[in-house]
């Protein structure tokens, strides 16, 4: 009987130690998950803030173009001039959270990469146009070939439309899979049943 009691006491102590270790491990994992979750939320909010800024500016410019009855053939030059006068910039911290959240969703990562790449190209073109417009304001003449100016305006116009489309798709995925209170549910739903908007975003990635 004493041997049985000693055996049970020994295993009770061992079992208690194992259970205590498991609980400590679970608590540590929970704390780590919450910390990572908080960092992901902060990163996602910064990205979404930048994306919303671009999309809001796009909507404002669309409304203004309608109010001013800007013809479709004049839109590239008109939009380029507006963007030169009222520059839209991304946060200097945009890159870090974008890289951090890339593993969350491969399509979201692609949309963000394309958005930033197109936006960077637009900014370079706008820098050139800024000099052109400054020269025109001063001397009422352009310093470059008009055809080159038109080509840059067309690139800016088409690029801005694509950048806004990628921003919309990236913002949607970020909202569902990071900022939502039920990211796992939305992740499963996106795999099993795609909406028309989800399909349009997928098509956008393969569009030249």
Give an overview in words:
The chain is mostly helical and 208 residues long. It has one domain (39-205). The chain has 7 helices and no strands. The protein has helices at residues 2-67, 75-85, 95-100, 106-139, 146-179, 183-192, 196-205. Helix 1 packs antiparallel against helix 5 (146-179), helix 4 packs antiparallel against helix 5 and helix 5 (146-179) packs across helix 6 (183-192).
Topology:
Elements: H1 2-67, H2 75-85, H3 95-100, H4 106-139, H5 146-179, H6 183-192, H7 196-205
**Count the helices. How many?**
7
N-to-C series of helices and strands: HHHHHHH
Biggest beta-sheet profile: none
| Shape label | elongated
| Low-pLDDT residue intervals, each spanning 5 or more residues | none
Q: How big is the Rg?
A: 27 Å
User: What is the percent of helical residues?
Assistant: over 70%
Number of separate strands: 0
Instruction: Count the domains.
Output: 1
Overall average pLDDT: 83
In terms of DSSP E residues, the strand content is under 5%
> Pairing-aware structural class of the strands and helices?
mainly alpha
- How far apart lie the N and C ends? 82 Å
Task: Looking at this protein, list some descriptive labels.
208 residues, mainly alpha, 7 helices, 82% helix, elongated
Please give a quick description of this structure.
With 208 residues, the chain is mostly helical.
């Amino acid at each position: 009987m004493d041997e049985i009691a000693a055996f049970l006491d020994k295993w009770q102590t061992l079992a208690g130690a194992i259970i205590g270790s498991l609980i400590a491990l679970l608590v540590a994992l929970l704390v780590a998950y919450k910390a990572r979750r908080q960092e992901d939320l902060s990163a996602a909010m910064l990205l979404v803030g930048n994306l919303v800024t671009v999309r809001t500016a796009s909507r404002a410019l669309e409304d203004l173009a309608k109010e001013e009855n800007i013809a479709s053939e004049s839109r590239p030059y008109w939009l380029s001039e507006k963007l030169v006068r009222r520059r839209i910039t991304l946060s200097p911290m945009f890159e870090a959270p974008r890289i951090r959240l890339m593993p969350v969703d491969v399509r979201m990562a692609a949309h963000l990469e394309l958005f930033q790449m197109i936006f960077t190209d637009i900014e370079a073109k706008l820098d050139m146009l800024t000099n052109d417009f400054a020269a025109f304001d001063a001397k009422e003449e352009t310093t470059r070939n008009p055809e080159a100016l038109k080509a840059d305006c067309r690139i800016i116009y088409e690029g801005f439309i694509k950048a806004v489309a990628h921003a919309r798709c990236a913002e949607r995925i970020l909202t569902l899979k990071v900022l939502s209170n039920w990211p796992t549910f939305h992740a499963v739903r996106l795999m099993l049943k795609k909406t028309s908007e989800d399909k349009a975003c997928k098509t956008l990635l393969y569009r030249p």
